[in-house]
Amino acid sequence: MNQNFRRAKAIEAKNKKRILEVNPHVDEGSGIYFLTRTEDGIRYAYIGQAKQLLTRLAQHLSGYQHIDLSIKNHGLYAADNITGWKIGFLHYPEDKLDEMEQKYIRQYAQSGYQLRNKTAGGQGDGKKQIDEYRPVKGYHDGLKQGYINASREIAHLFDLHLTVITKKDPPTTHQKNALEKFKAFLQAYKQQEDEDD
């Protein structure tokens, strides 16, 4: 048990260091934090509240919520990762956190950010959902997921071992069309990951 506790504390310390590399001003005060990133002209944001800002932000680096997975996928902002997540914050007393979180979520939504929040903020009763939770998967969802899985696996095989060529050189119009369809299939999993993100 002691060893697990020490390991967890070491991971937390490492994650806090990573947060401070992005924004050295983050502290353990209470407040609202802002995770933002821009890619291909699209602005993304996640607004959260914390009684201890640095600890809460560090938890995102080890978690499995939607925003946590996006941070793992895109990384934190750095000179060599300009599309990574930037970190900002504002201090507020604990009794103002719900109110201010809701205010900033509305403000960022109205400013054109694609929000990664699932609700309109607050920890109390009556939280409003702002992002659709995934519906129960049905038959067609399963087919679509199978297509995406096949796309990912075959694209991986071609990246490592294979090349695509047409039977005739120069290729016929039908062969060109077939090649374009195949290339689109190989990219299908990337498009799905972008939509999920």
From TrEMBL:
Pfam families cross-referenced by the UniProt entry: GIY-YIG
Domain GIY-YIG residue range list: 31-113
Name of the protein: GIY-YIG nuclease family protein
Organism: Waltera intestinalis
